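Please supply some protein, with fold tokens.
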Amino acid sequence: MMDRHCKAADIIWRVEATWNVAFQTLERVDELQRQVADLSALVASLRAGTIPEVEARPIAATRGFGK
């Protein structure tokens, strides 16, 4: 009986760990999509011959270190 509880707890722990990794990956994908959009807007502005206003963000925050 105890062995079943240990196996169930292990499965639950693995599912939670997998969910956490998946969620963190989705957060990173969202941040990368924002960065790609920012770069696309910058390239479009430069091609149009204008210098866009740029939002200053700390480098650490854009690389996931500030969390």
